[in-house]
């Protein structure tokens, strides 16, 4: 499990950096939308890099406390959030 945490940490650092770029591009796209949930999408776009930070820090904290199942959930958190966000963006483009 220790190697998994190290790999997750590296992925989360890279995910935070690329998430900031992704969020910036998404905000530009969202600004041109006319759907009623534009505010929700703006907040959701800003939370993409935050999910990677929460995953990176949270996995180490939960692992040291012995909560293995929560640790696995935190590893999956940014990826599940990203999929949901992309689906919301695709629905909004229609």
Q: What would the keywords be for this entry?
A:
single chain, elongated, mainly alpha, 94 residues, 3 helices, 89% helix
Structure, briefly:
The protein is mainly α and 94 residues long. The chain contains 3 helices and no strands.
How would you describe this protein?
Helix 1 (2-31) packs antiparallel against helix 2 (38-65) and helix 2 (38-65) packs antiparallel against helix 3 (68-93). The protein is mainly alpha-helical and 94 residues long. The protein is elongated and about 45 Å long. The protein contains three helices and no strands.
Task: Itemize the secondary structure elements and their pairings.
Layout: H1 2-31, H2 38-65, H3 68-93
Helix pairs in contact: 1-2, 2-3
Count the strands?
A: 0
- Percent helix range: over 70%
How many helices does DSSP assign?
Answer: 3
Largest sheet, strands/sense/barrel: none
* Head-to-tail CA distance between termini: 42 Å
Strand-residue fraction?
A: under 5%
Number of domains: 1
Principal-axis shape equals elongated
- Strand/helix succession: HHH
| Low-pLDDT sequence parts | none
**Overall pLDDT, averaged?**
93
């Amino acid at each position: 499990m220790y190697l998994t945490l190290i790999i997750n940490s590296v992925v989360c650092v890279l995910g935070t950096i690329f998430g900031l770029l992704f969020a910036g591009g998404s905000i530009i796209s969202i600004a041109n939308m006319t759907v009623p949930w534009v505010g929700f999408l703006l907040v959701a776009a800003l939370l993409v890099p935050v999910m990677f930070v929460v995953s990176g820090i949270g996995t180490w904290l939960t692992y040291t406390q012995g909560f293995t199942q929560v640790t696995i959930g935190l590893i999956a958190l940014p990826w599940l959030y990203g999929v949901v966000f992309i689906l919301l963006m695709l629905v909004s483009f229609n």
